[in-house]
Amino acid sequence: MVNKAPHVLSIPDRYSPDKPNLYHLLCNRLEKVFIVHRLDKETSGILVFAKNEEAHRILSGQFNERTVEKIYLALVEGQVHQNEGVIDKPIGRHPSLPGKMIVTKSGKSSITHYRVIEQFKKYTLAEANIKTGRTHQIRVHFQSIGYPLAVDAVYGRKDAFLLSDVKLGKYSIGKDQDERPLMSRSSLHAGRLTFDHPRTGERLSFEAPLPKDFAAVLQQLRKWGR
Known about the structure:
- This protein has one domain (2-224): Pseudouridine synthase.
- It is built from five helices and twelve strands.
- It has helices spanning 22-30, 53-64, 137-144, 164-167, 212-224; strands at residues 2-4, 34-35, 44-47, 49-50, 69-77, 84-88, 91-93, 101-103, 111-119, 123-130, 188-196, 203-207.
- The strands form three sheets. Strands 1, 3, 5, 6, 9, 10, 11 and 12 form an eight-stranded mixed sheet that branches.
């Protein structure tokens, strides 16, 4: 199990294969690991790699059969109007923008269950349980129902979260100074992963605590954003 920091690649990037990534870091330490799944570069949280081919086969089968439980925390814009719900919309590649995904009838079946954890004046902290593992699924699904991630340079309205966003008139900085963002990556965290041990069959659940940037945003929202 690995707790991935934000801005770190899960696996080598096709455009910059020499860039630091978890796969190469683990291979350097353990000689060989096998990729089971991945997280977006900006997403923090929990990942599982397999140590041998048999474990890789079994774990990959659990992901394909959707017996793995993947729980994310997402900070989204606006007050989500339903305390819980299901987003069942197919996702496919954007026809003209490489790397971007959209909801489209020609896409693959994609299902996200969500429930509200905490409400703020202009934001909502939600738990997302994805039953499928499409590229950018949570980001695309929340954007499709009118609640994009609070920070998302591709699918949202902001590429950073500033303290002045919530303190408004009560916030000031010195002359000729630029405000430093509390968070400058997608406001999404893979918080819990549950699966069956590939050898013993025991049901296991692992959790990753919120990283400092995400925790700092929530702290300020609880103080100023009610």
